[in-house]
């Protein structure tokens, strides 16, 4: 898999995790969720399988979401920050000594969303507990560019805040995703919430680090294209 495809895959992962809103009431609007990542479909390349991320953290606070993953034995770290209030999406990547970030405004996010396969979501009637929270189910049908597929997801309405799902393919879901999967570039990734910590974050937790250089998202893609396959 080319690094550019992997970055696009992880961006799709982040967008999926941004499907987080609630119906109001007694919910926790600030905290961090740790997801375990599994790969239901075996990799042909076992070395690539060992490099893929096994865990993901998602922090949320007052309309802000930050998703972080690392792979290639920590050599590459990728983070995505969603700012619902200002309708901006930040993409951060650390590769060796390079630390860059790119910003997409609302129009650019909408253009990006047009490239994501349509997701048809049908609510279910089942419930189960995941990481201590009551979750509801839904069936998802995806018409991909290569093959159609479907899966069951689980979400909770006991976490999150309103309108965090502004840049997500799961926008009809009224809750935080706790178990779901994605399939792109011949890779199937399944995410299951392992733990939820309700805690307060300082505002600077969601700021771009000062030692990151701002580039355009087109330059981000060009930099990735220049790297060798991993």
Structural class: alpha+beta
Q: Would you give the CATH topology?
A: outer membrane lipoprotein receptor (LolB), chain A
Sheet with most strands: 12 strands, mixed
Order of helices and strands: HEHEEEEEHEEEEEEH
Helix content: 10-25%
| Overall CATH class | Mainly Beta
Gross CATH architecture: Clam
Gyration radius from CA atoms, angstroms: 17 Å
Separation of the first and last Cα atoms: 7 Å
Domain count, please report it. 1
User: What is the molecular shape?
Assistant: globular
Number of strands: 12
Structural overview:
There is one protein chain. The chain is α+β, with helices and mostly antiparallel strands. It has a single domain (about 5-225), classed as Clam (outer membrane lipoprotein receptor (LolB), chain A), CATH 2.50.20.10. Helix content is about 15%, strand content about 45%. The protein is built from four helices and twelve strands; from the N terminus they run αβαβββββαββββββα. Strands 7-8-9-10-11-1-2-3-4-5-6-12 form a twelve-stranded mixed β-sheet. A hairpin with a 4-residue loop joins strand 3 and strand 4 (about 75-85).
Short overview:
With 230 residues, the protein is α+β, with helices and mostly antiparallel strands. It has 4 helices and 12 strands. It has helices at 3-17, 46-51, 106-113, 217-226, and strands spanning 30-38, 55-61, 64-71, 76-83, 88-95, 98-104, 119-130, 133-143, 148-156, 176-184, 187-197, 213-214.
């Amino acid at each position: 898999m080319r690094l550019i495809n992997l970055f696009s895959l992880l961006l799709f992962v982040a967008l999926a995790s941004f499907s987080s809103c609630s119906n109001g009431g007694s919910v926790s609007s600030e905290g961090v969720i740790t997801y375990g990542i599994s790969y239901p479909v075996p990799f042909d390349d076992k070395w690539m399988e060992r490099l893929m991320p096994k865990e993901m953290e998602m922090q949320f606070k007052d309309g802000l979401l930050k998703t972080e993953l690392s792979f290639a034995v920590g050599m590459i770290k990728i983070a995505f920050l969603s700012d619902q209030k200002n309708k901006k999406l930040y993409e951060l990547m650390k590769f060796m000594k390079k630390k860059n970030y790119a910003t997409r405004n609302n129009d650019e996010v909408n253009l990006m969303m047009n490239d994501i396969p349509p997701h048809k979501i049908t609510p279910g009637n089942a419930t189960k507990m995941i990481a201590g929270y009551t979750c509801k189910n839904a069936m998802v049908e995806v018409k991909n560019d290569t093959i159609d597929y479907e899966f069951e997801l689980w979400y909770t309405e006991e976490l999150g805040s309103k309108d965090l799902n502004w840049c997500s393919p799961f926008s009809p879901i009224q809750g935080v995703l706790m178990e779901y999967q994605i399939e792109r570039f011949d890779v199937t990734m399944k995410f299951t919430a392992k733990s939820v910590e309700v805690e307060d974050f300082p505002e600077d937790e969601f700021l771009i680090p000062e030692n990151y250089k701002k580039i355009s998202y087109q330059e981000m893609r060009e930099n990735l294209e220049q790297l060798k396959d991993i």
